[in-house]
Amino acid sequence: MASFVTLSDSIVEENNETKLAQLVQQMIQYCSTSGKPEAVPQNLLLKLITMLNVDYMLSLKTMACALLSLLCHNDPDTKVAVVKKEVLRPIWNTCTHVCRDGLPDLESSSHKRLLQYLEQMVLLLRKLSYGEAYNQFQILKAGLIKLLLQIADMQNLYFYTYHPEAVSFLRNFTKEKDLIGKVSPLVDGEKEEILSQYLKCDSNSILQSASSFVVELYDTTDKTVDVVVKEEMLKRGLAWPEIKPPLNTQKEQNQKISQSEYLVSGDEIKDIPESTDDWLDIRVSHVISPQYFMAYVGGQDTLSTVEQVQKTIAEQVDSKGVKLKKPPEPGQFVCVTLDGMGHCRGQVGDMSDSDKRAHSL
Length: 361
Prior knowledge:
This protein has helices at about 5-15, 15-35, 40-55, 60-70, 75-85, 90-100, 110-130, 135-140, 145-150, 165-175, 190-200, 205, 230-235, 250-255, 300-315; strands at about 180-185, 215-220, 225-230, 260-265, 270, 280-285, 295, 335-340, 340-350, 355-360. It is an alpha+beta fold. Among the domains are: about 5-150, Leucine-rich Repeat Variant, CATH 1.25.10.10; about 315-360, no CATH class. Helix 1 (about 5-15) packs across helix 3 and helix 4 (about 60-70) runs parallel beside helix 7. The radius of gyration is 25 Å and the shape is elongated. Residues about 155-160, about 195-210 and about 240-275 have low confidence and may be disordered. InterPro entries: ARM-like (IPR011989), ARM-type_fold (IPR016024).
């Protein structure tokens, strides 16, 4: 097999699509087996990014994205260099085109090719953003997050909006009412604590200058009592359910009182209306703390899909999980069994002698 330098020079000089595809494929194989040099040639990065801008076949663009991901692996300087060479522009153009025109017909060959290209683009973005505050900010600034969310939910309404019934209720309930919004800033350190539970990268540099607030909306039309709009929506199952705090009092332990039936107030336990877990757009999968939880978001179609995926995984993996025959390498996909949270698929990111981290998908 040709050396890295030889392949790099050939890719930079070649313009024929067929020959380029062969060279890029050889480079991918070389990097996968022999690794890459510490210093990646800048003209190679520029050539690969240019290939994403040119009207080449999708299979070639897909391989170009895959090669860029390999070249960026565990290389902060290359990650930043790729973003500074405007790799986000062709990605934004492709996402905008898909959001505007939709995907090709399901039965067509172009449908599969476009999905493969989108998959490699997302993996490249994930590689570029991991641990790099500058790249994270540029991706956010380019508006790519919103586009990717839209692509991920093309068959339904955007999943980060309220259910249509909730929108209708909120509009009618607040029409011609005297509304007051109570704005409370998040306590110092609370924002970082929330982010640290979900983001496995340094995001503080991006958000440290941003102020975060909690907003509560009140209907004050009746001067004798304030109506909390959120509470009215909760009663109808039209908003996020409130996860009640765990009960730790001795009285609760002795009486074995269900958390769904009672609520602690100091040392007293007071009856509260029995709540339901049936919500229009959400299914809680795991409670992290009294205020934060993981959940599946979407209508019945989404929940049915989740149930089918869970069933398939459960059939393939036994309750104890299947141990790997050898340590996974960075980039490999693994199935992880999590206590109380079922199974998830993850990609091995970084590793050391005693630790391996897999990022869930």
